[in-house]
Amino acid sequence: MRSEALAALLCLSWPDAVFTTPARIIILRHGEKADKWKLCDIGQERAHALAANCANKKLEKRFPGEAVTLRRLLKLDQFEGVPESWPSGTYDYFWIVEYGKIGSDVPTGFRMIKQEFGAPYDEVPSNDWDQPNGLEAESGCDLKGAQD
Residue 97 above 80 pLDDT? Predict the structure, then answer.
């Protein structure tokens, strides 16, 4: 009961803090795992769904003028360099969206950062955006789109 009262007091004391936009949003792909290293079928389906709804040129064409992708919902289409789609074989990037004006839902910056890991993760693909990741069938990974 005390924690609820404290939360209510804080909300009333600092209402702007409750209703403001975040200073930064980081978007990445992820899905449910089958084990420590592998996505299960549902995880793979989620990863495909995230890619399709995060940035998808076809989806935007299907619903012209509507914000139906994260790219449009977060108003990233106003920046140069924001990809129109997230390629199916590209898993190793973060999208970082900056909000520099308090209370505004209009972003002030966008960056794409490539995930690059050192030892002992040297074998994790670190391909450039929309480039083949070098995985072979023996990897056990779904290669659909990964080598295009």
Answer: yes
| CA separation for the pair 46, 143 (Å, rounded) | 16
| Cα 70 to Cα 49: distance, rounded to the nearest angstrom | 12
Given pLDDT bands bounded at 50, 70 and 90, which one contains residue 110? very high
Return the sign of the alpha-carbon dihedral for residues 121, 124, 129, 132: positive
What the block records as the tokens of 64 is: 């012209």
Greater model confidence, 12 or 49: 49
C-alpha distances (whole Å) from 5 to each of 14, 72, 94, 109, 139 are 14, 38, 38, 37, 53
Domain boundaries, the chain: 13-139
